[in-house]
Amino acid sequence: MPPPGRRTAADAADPPGILNPMPATSSPAIEDYLKTVYAHTEWQPDPITPKALADKLGIAPSSVTEMVKKMAAQGLISHVPYGPLRLTDAGRVRALAVVRRHRLIETWLVSEMGYRWDEVHDEAEVLEHSLSDRLLEAIDDRLGRPTRDPHGDAIPGADGAVPSEPFLLLADAQPGHAGRVIRISDRDPEVLREVEGRGIRPGVEVTVTDAAAERVRVRVRVDGDDADLSGVVARAIWVTA
User: What is the pLDDT of residue 20?
Assistant: First the structure.
């Protein structure tokens, strides 16, 4: 299995412009499922289970079961009863298209519209289903073809390429480890506000100076200052390995 986010030889054979345009028959519900399944394995290797998918989407497991059957019939998801869910090649292409839209919109809202990075996720959730391919291309061009969104998540290229580099969860880093912050999870706006207040953002260099048992607390040095991070915050930050 290739590292999360890394393209395989089969992916590399995809023709240029594979992610554009989105299929006219695509539905917001299917797009949300595909994006969630893809994102689950982007920063860790274990495939998502139907129950975990239901929890992430905030819907009943029975609803997930019915949708998974529909998506499997369309050749978007590979699934065996009671087993984990995996994207097919076609499903991954569709998922990357949605992810690209979402992250370009987040970047645009922060760069051009004055939004803070802790405000853009929900807005992008709505806009990603309604933005035209022409406007998305114009946004990408205006932003200078960015490769990462404000939280550090990779923005897939129009050709399906996904930038990737070796990473480590800050909560797993040993004292003495120095690395550049790659990504901060945007699931909790409070976490984003807390780390921003401590000067931690993607691209910033941090050094782990101490870690409590069970990683309930991690101390890091940022720009010469020490900062104590809770285990919850440390598990929301990825750094270079």
Answer: 59
Name the average pLDDT for the chain: 88
Q: CB–CB of 148/163 below 8 Å?
A: yes
pLDDT, mean of each 10-residue run, the chain (241 residues)? 37 48 71 95 92 94 93 93 92 95 97 96 92 93 96 94 92 93 94 94 94 82 91 94 91
Spell out the residues 6+ positions from residue 124 whose beta carbon is closer than 8 angstroms to its own. 102, 103, 105, 106, 109
DSSP type of residue 170? G
DSSP 8-state symbol, 85: E
Per-residue pLDDT reduced to its tens digit, 164-191: 899 999 999 999 999 999 999 998 999 9
Span between the terminal Cα atoms of the chain, in Å: 19
Query: Residue written as tokens 């992250």?
Result: 103
Task: Give the separation between CA 23 and CA 149, rounded to whole angstroms.
Answer: 24
47 φ/ψ sector (left φ>0, alpha ψ -120 to 50, else beta) = beta
Q: CA-CA-CA-CA torsion for 93, 202, 43, 69, nearest 10 degrees? A: -40
Give me the pLDDT at residue 214, please: 75
Cα separation of 190 and 194, whole Å? Answer: 6
Three-point CA angle 140, 142, 148, nearest 5°: 45
Residue 38 amino acid letter = Y
Which residue, chain included where needed, has tokens 């065996």? 80
For 5, 51, 107, 117, 128, the CA distances from 28, given in Å and listed in that order, are 23, 20, 21, 23, 9
Task: Read off the DSSP letter of residue 14.
Answer: S
DSSP secondary structure code for residue 176 in this structure: T
Q: Residue 183 in 3-state DSSP?
A: strand
